[in-house]
Amino acid sequence: MSQETLPIGTQQRPSVTRSKDRRSRGRVAPTSGLRPRDRRPGRMLGRIVLWAVLIIGAAAMLIPFLWLVRSALMNDDQILIAPPQWWPNPFAWGNFSGALTAQPFALYFLNTITIEFVVITGTVLTCAVSAFSFSRLRWRGRNVVFGILLTSVMLPYAVTLIPTFIMWSELQALNTFIPLMVPAWFAGAGGGVFNIFLMRQFFLTIPFELDEAAYIDGASPWRVFWTIIMPLSKPVIVVVVIFTFIGVWNDFLGPLLYLSSDNKFTLALGLASFQGQYTAQWGYLMAASTVVILPIILLFFFLQRYFVEGVTLTGVKG
Q1: Of the four, 55, 88, 140, 194, which is 20 to 30 A from 184 by CA?
Q2: Integer-rounded Cα radius of gyration of the chain
Q3: CA 244/CA 187 separation, integer angstroms
Q4: Contact between residue 119 and residue 181 where contact means Cβ atoms under 8 Å apart
C-alpha cells in the first residue's frame, strides 16, 4: 500500500516521532549528583534543631506564668519555703475568692474598662486619621513632618512627666480620668506615634487606584477614608487595639500619679494594694494577678490571626 492510501493519522506519525526526537536531543541528561531524597536527613536534622530551639524558648517564656499559677494555689508559707516546691500541697483555692473580696475588684474592673473604651476609641480614630494624611494625601512637607514625628519616639516618658503633671494640676484635672483618657484623642497616648507608623505602613499597601476611582466619582478625602481605607484595614486596626488594650490594662504609673481616691483605682493599683510597706499577701496577690492576666491571654488568642497579618503587612512598603 502506498503512502497516499494510508489513513490521515498514520501519515502524521513520522513527523510526530521526528519532533519528539528533536526535543529529546536538546535535553541534557541528568547529572549523577545528590537526589532530593539524599538531602532529606540534613533537612530533618535542621528541623529538629529548629524545633528544639523553639521549644526551649517557649518553655523559658512559660516558666514565669507557671510559677504565677503555682503560687496562686499556695499559701504564704508554701510560697516562701526553701527549696521551692512546684506542686501545691494542699491546694489553696481560697486565695481566689479571698483576693477578689478583699478589694473591690468589680469597681476596679469597671474603672479600667471605662478608660479602655475611651482610650481605644480615641487612639484608633486619631492615629488612623494621621496615618491617612501621611500615606494617602499629598501636601508639602509631609515626609519632613513625619520624620520629626518619628523622632519623638526617642524622647523618654520621664522627660515630659513633670511638665505634664503640672499642666493637669493647673487644669484641676487631678484625681479624675481626664489625664488618662484625653491624650488618646490627640494620638498622644502611650505608643501613639508607633501606632501612626503601623497604620501608615499598612495604608501604603492599599492600591492607590481605589482612591483615584473614588475621587473621579466625586468622593471627598473623608469619604475615601471611611468607605475605602478603614474597611480594608481591619488587620492593622486589630493590632492597634491589642497594643492599646495591653498598655492601658497594665498601666500602673499613670493611675498612680493622677488618681488618689480608692473608688477611682484601676486593676493595676488594686493589685499593688496587696503589698504594703512591711507585709505582703503573696497568695492573694498571685491569685489576683492570675485573674487579671486572663483577659489579655484570651484577647490575643481570639485575635491572633489578625494580629500576625497586621504586623506582617505593615513592613511591605516604606
Answers
A1: 140
A2: 31
A3: 11
A4: yes
Of 59-68, 127-136, 189-198, 239-248, least confident by mean pLDDT is 189-198
pLDDT digits (tens, 9 = 90+) for 147-163: 888 888 888 888 888 99
DSSP 174: T
Specify the amino acid at residue 310.
G
CA angle 247, 251, 256 (to 5 degrees): 160
Q: What is the spatial distance between Cα 132 and Cα 229, in angstroms, rounded to a whole number?
A: 8
Query: Which residues have a Cβ under 8 Å from the Cβ of 37 and sit 6 or more positions away?
Result: none
Task: Indicate the pTM of the whole model.
Answer: 0.76
Coil vs helix vs strand at 280: strand
Selection from 210, 226, 206 nearest residue 313 by Cα: 206
128, 202 contact by CB (below 8 A): no
Please give the grid coordinates belonging to residue 296.
489579655
For the chain, the average pLDDT equals: 81
- Give the mean pLDDT of 38-66: 84
What is the residue whose three cell numbers read 480594608?
232
Is 287:95 a contact under the CB 8 Å cutoff?
Answer: yes
Q: Three-class SS of residue 275? A: strand
